[in-house]
Design goal:
Elements lengths: L15 H13 L3 E7 L10 E7 L6 H14 L3 E8 L6 E9 L7 E8 L3 E8 L7
Antiparallel strand pairs: 1-2, 1-3, 3-4, 5-6
Length: about 130
């Protein structure tokens, strides 16, 4: 099952040329770009490991693509995402975030329903155990 997080997650995986164009869009807007990776893509895990520092003041997406290639070389077995941070007054937040790398074996999650007191229902997202191959 394909993990869907961030922009473009409903589309086929982006090619490097498409990633380059999205990064160039971020830079044209004056956003800082950063690369992050994780082996725990749980929807509530918002704190991914950063690959280096955020890239401020870049003019060309080639620098980001070079760092992405190195991150893929080291952490190609994990999820990698690119984010564009807008520091302008009134925003000061991530404006775009999308996956640029997936591990060979995707993580799977399921929604567990639990009835609790007062006829309330509680839902929890849990990671499914990997399927065993016989």
């Amino acid at each position: 099952m394909k993990l869907t997080q961030g922009c473009f997650s409903f589309l086929p995986d982006l090619t490097d040329d498409q990633i380059y164009k999205q990064v160039q869009y971020c830079l044209a807007k004056g956003w800082a770009v950063n690369i992050e990776f994780t082996d725990d893509p749980h929807p509530r895990n918002t704190y991914w490991e950063m690959w280096g520092l955020p890239m401020f003041d870049l003019q060309d997406a080639a620098g980001v693509m070079m760092e992405l290639a190195e991150c893929r070389r080291v952490y190609g077995d994990r999820y990698i995402r690119i984010s564009g941070f807008d520091s302008s007054p009134g925003w000061e937040s991530v404006r775009i975030s999308f996956l640029v790398n997936r591990p060979p074996q995707e993580a799977e999650f399921e929604l567990v329903r639990q009835e609790v007191g007062g006829r309330a229902i509680r839902y929890t997202t849990v990671r499914k155990a990997p399927a065993h191959v016989s």
